[in-house]
Amino acid sequence: MVRPPLEEHTEPRTTASTLNWLRAGVLGANDGIISTAGLVIGVAAATTDRTAIITAGLAGLAAGAMSMAVGEYVSVSTQRDSERALLDLERHELAQMPEEELAELAGIYRAKGLSPELAQQVAVELTEHDALGAHAEAELGIDPQELTNPWHAAWASFIAFTLGALLPLVA
Asked: What gap in Å lies between CA 62 and CA 50, rounded to an integer?
């Protein structure tokens, strides 16, 4: 399969983005299985009426899937807001204290084992190429072009909860 150049993708898939999606999915599926099973077993202990049991299970599925999706959205939105605030601070520092920021970046590369001369050269070249990207990645562990996406986590959690909740309902 031939893929178009990366620039044509609206949002490239990264390891961090995939892990965010996977984390939300695993959490959602686990919660869907456990909470729906508990609800269905509780109602089944009170009555043998299948309609009541299924209705309670479906209500739990709907409420739980929405709750998980909204919770994931809010959580990841908060993370994204924090990332944006850190990037704004880094932009400010680069504008107000470029020499100190360059020294800080060179220090990070020295701490990773580069010689002082090479660390300085790498810091200078990366800063000239993409100052915010270089400093954000090295100092903050953030890629400014690939912030976490709250919608990915919300949908993953919603779908996974629904699929997990279907297991005890089918049983």
From this structure: 18
- What pLDDT digit, counting tens, does each position of 51-105 carry? 999 999 999 999 999 999 999 999 999 999 999 999 999 999 999 999 999 999 9
The DSSP code for 6 is: G
Flag whether 159 is in a domain.
yes
Residue 63 dihedral angles phi and psi, to the nearest 5°: -65, -45
Q: How confident is the model at residue 14 (pLDDT cuts 50, 70, 90)?
A: low
Predicted structure pTM score: 0.71
Assess if residue 7 is contained within a domain. Answer: no
Task: Provide the domain limits for residue 69.
Answer: 16-170
Sign of CA dihedral 42, 47, 49, 52: negative
- What number of residues does the chain have? 171
128 domain residue, yes or no: yes
The domain total for the chain is 1
**Residues 28/157, Cβ–Cβ less than 8 Å:** yes
160 in a structural domain: yes
Give the three-class secondary structure for 125: helix
Question: With the C-alpha atoms ordered 15, 21, 27, 33, is the resulting torsion angle positive or negative?
Answer: negative
